[in-house]
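Hi D.,

Good news: the full-assembly prediction came through. Inputs first.
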Amino acid sequence: MTQLLEEVEAGRKRAPVIEPGHSFSTVTAKISDVVLTRPLSIGWLAGVMFCFGLVNLLLLAVGYLFLKGTGIWGITIPIGWGFAIVNFVWWIGIGHAGTLISAILMLLRQTWRNSINRFAEAMTLFAVACAGMFPLIHTGRPWVAYWMFPYPSTMGVWPQFRSPLIWDVFAVSTYATTSLLFWFVGLIPDLATLRDRAKNIWIKRAYGALAMGWRGSARHWSRYETAYLLLAGLATPLVLSVHTVVSFDFAVGIVPGWHTTIFPPYFVAGAIYSGFAMVLMLAIPIRSIYGLKDFITERHLENSAKVMLATGLIVAYGYAMEAFMGWYSGNRYDAFLLWNRLHGPYAAWYYSLLICNIGIPQVLWIRKFRTNPVLLFLVSTVVLVGMWLERFIIVVVSLHRDFLNSSWGMYYPTKWDWFTFTGTLGLFLFCMFFFMRILPSISIFEMRTLLPESKVKAE
Amino acid sequence: MNEPAIYGLMAEFDTPDEIVAAAKRTHAAGYKKIDAYSPFPIEELWEAIGFHHNRVALVVLIGGILGCMTGYGLQYWVATIAYPINVGGRPFHSWPSFIIVTFELTILFSVLAAVFGMLALNGLPMPYHPVFNVERFSRATEDKFFLVIFSSDSKYNEAETRAFLQSLGPKSIEEVPS
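Then the structure:
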């Protein structure tokens, strides 16, 4: 009982969303100076160069792929999907946290989101860009990818709207467009701030062009707030639908391990799980390198850790249900799938998945672990690895042994698979490095509204 | 006309409380062509200058309805008229399969309507605006609050308006050249 009371007391004293002592101008200066006045550092340049190397690796891998075809990858029949789809689902899942933070937490009036939504949205954009590449290059003929869109072609052929793969095209492209616009609308007032603070005329003009003449008129703010709220309301069902549609790519098929109704909620929870892990992995170094600990406080880390813990438990429930249904359904193929996961050639991967996604993250129940940045960073890494393994288990292990044992096989990723995957990691970080230095990584105008003096007292 | 025309008079305030109070008094005094500028959204402020209804929500609704009809209509037309394919004897008009793309296009059209509708109603992009001629106005995107009475207002009279603004207790008053 006393321990419970202590917990409650500690909760009351928890870190604020923004450290005290800030005013409108210090908030503005602190965030915009990272972009406008901070000198180039060796560390940043080194990071950019390293990631640029990885981007070149990606270009090499993709260039060679275009030259030779998908035969350079480890995909064979029966495992026709392989790394490309594993990485696609993994990346798009990571993207979900950005929209969740910016839209769902906004509708729930969680104002602590104001200091992490901007870079989480940027993270979403870059992750979706990495994700979108994979199905495209997996088609083998990416130069005719536009055939998937409905347009009046001379061939007289139209897309097959009963296919989940076409649903995916619409879901992912709508998601990418919405994320980009939502992010850009959020940036407009901050771009105006940068325009007004920049000293160099060319930098001023560049931000001025992007800010489109924003001047903070009350009429504009009124329309802006309505539009922003509606965008949040539209993005909320959208983000839930995207990973649902991704899960339909599997669930609509009849392969054991895919053909299950639990996939949509369990995919969405997994997406948010990995997304928050990525948010933490980015927020923890950013807040200490750029001196933003006043704005991204312990509270943010702790809240993100709690979201991770909750979604991780939903994912654990998903695994438990899959296993239970394997036994309870009485379907011999489902039962074999479970046996194959536990004892088949990929059993080690499955046990690692359980340790990474269910075992280790349970340390987040302890408050001390939720507020320790280093440990949180490590747990997040483990979760990201675990979520990648989950997608590997779903794609590869389900496909490699299905109904007929004459069509069983094994999947061995080649070096080109690994080059492509590491290359997209590099591309993602490369974009993040540039984003940090050319755009405000925290929403300045939303931070101003968190200050107590921004509230108008009733007369 | 050698003298530059005046676009309006601009008063500067330090806090949200002051600007909201000033905007309310200006509106009550009968000035209708006014605008206020702030570094972050203040709901009380647009209410104070008499701006109660924006039409963004209507634009988004229209966008959403159009998106929904486009999505379903396109799929119906493709699946039954333009390119009918018999898949295992299923009906050409297999509507449950069409729900997802209809939903996605509803969202897409609503989002486009929200963003471009908001920008269009706001008259953005607008690279030049007279208020930018006032040097101190650059603080409107940082920490200061401004109230402008436009010279096009029927009650506008340079001396009287200036005296009225002075009575609101601003930090400074400046002319906005047009």
